[in-house]
Specification:
This protein is mostly helical. The protein has helices spanning 3-35, 58-71, 74-86, 106-112, 118-134, 140-153, 182-185, 197-207, 221-234, 237-242, 246-254, 264-277.
Length: 282
């Protein structure tokens, strides 16, 4: 069972138990009030227990119990919203047809990536949400993992194009760079820094945009998120995120050396912060 499902199961059990206890207490009070009446002739009247007061509807006790539990547990309120609004029936991976702007808030994004300015966060929130929705990046673990990689690869949303000139990729057969100049031509672009002729060729066919003839299109704000989601899904990274394996997620995105992605500590830190903000247990 994933950590998100275990966490939600525990919170659900706590809420249900609290409601059950309040319901039982409420039923007992109502029954005591309704059954209180003067003793019949020839019987010994029991000592009074409660004064003659109007019976309190059971629904009031239930609502009071629910309010008490939820108000004392803001995380439970947030979990209820995530699991029932984003994922009907509590099944991880399903989303309702909500507007993109409601998927992740500016405040949540800035809490996960505090280096973002207000203006940058507001400018990117809608296309970011749309991209995550299109890519089924729709659970706290997936979103935390996705944001952790974009934050590092784009230098905290400061660029959609790699700062280096790309010479390091020249002649890289594993990237499909077979022609002179392919290294700089197909250097990292998009928020996730898609790199190499082979990737540019594949995403051109899948997205219907000629990134091979015009590689700089991948850095254009219109395509920077779509190409990032394309890369994410082409590597099946949602599955790695579902397992909470941020090392594997980072390696699938960045490769790195000796099985570790570059800047792995930063990626892990963003991932952990994302889980906390999105009401996951670290």
């Amino acid at each position: 069972m994933s950590s998100s499902r275990r966490w939600w199961t525990r919170r659900t059990a706590a809420i249900v138990l609290g409601l059950l206890i309040m319901g039982i207490v409420g039923l007992g009070v109502v029954a005591a009030v309704e059954n209180h009446s003067p003793a019949q002739a020839g019987t010994v009247a029991p000592p009074p227990v409660l004064p003659d007061t109007p019976a309190i509807p059971i629904s009031v006790w239930l609502l009071a119990g629910a309010a008490a539990i939820l108000l004392t547990s803001p995380r439970a309120v947030r979990a209820f919203a995530i699991e029932r609004i984003h994922r009907p029936g509590g099944r991880v991976g399903q989303v309702t047809e909500r507007s993109a702007a409601d998927y992740l808030t500016v405040e949540e994004l800035k809490a996960i990536v505090p280096e973002l300015t207000d203006d940058d966060a507001k400018a990117t929130i809608e296309p970011l949400n749309r991209a995550m929705k299109d890519g089924e990046i729709n659970t706290p673990l997936r979103q935390a993992a996705f944001l952790s990689q974009l934050a590092v690869e784009s230098d905290r949303w400061r660029t959609t194009e790699e700062y280096a000139n790309g010479d390091a990729y020249e002649g890289r057969g594993d990237l499909g760079n077979e022609w002179p100049g392919d290294g700089p031509r197909f250097k990292g672009r998009g928020y996730i820094q898609v790199t190499g002729r082979e990737n540019y060729t594949q995403m051109s066919g899948d997205l219907g945009v000629d990134f091979v003839s015009d590689p700089e299109l991948a850095a254009d704000p219109k395509y920077a998120y779509p190409v990032s989601v394309w890369y994410w899904n082409s590597r099946g990274i949602n599955s790695a995120a579902d397992g909470g394996d941020i090392d594997l997620v980072s390696q699938l995105v960045n490769g790195g050396e000796y099985g570790k992605a570059h800047n792995i500590d930063e990626r892990v830190a963003y991932f952990d912060r994302g889980k906390r903000v999105l009401c996951m247990q670290s």
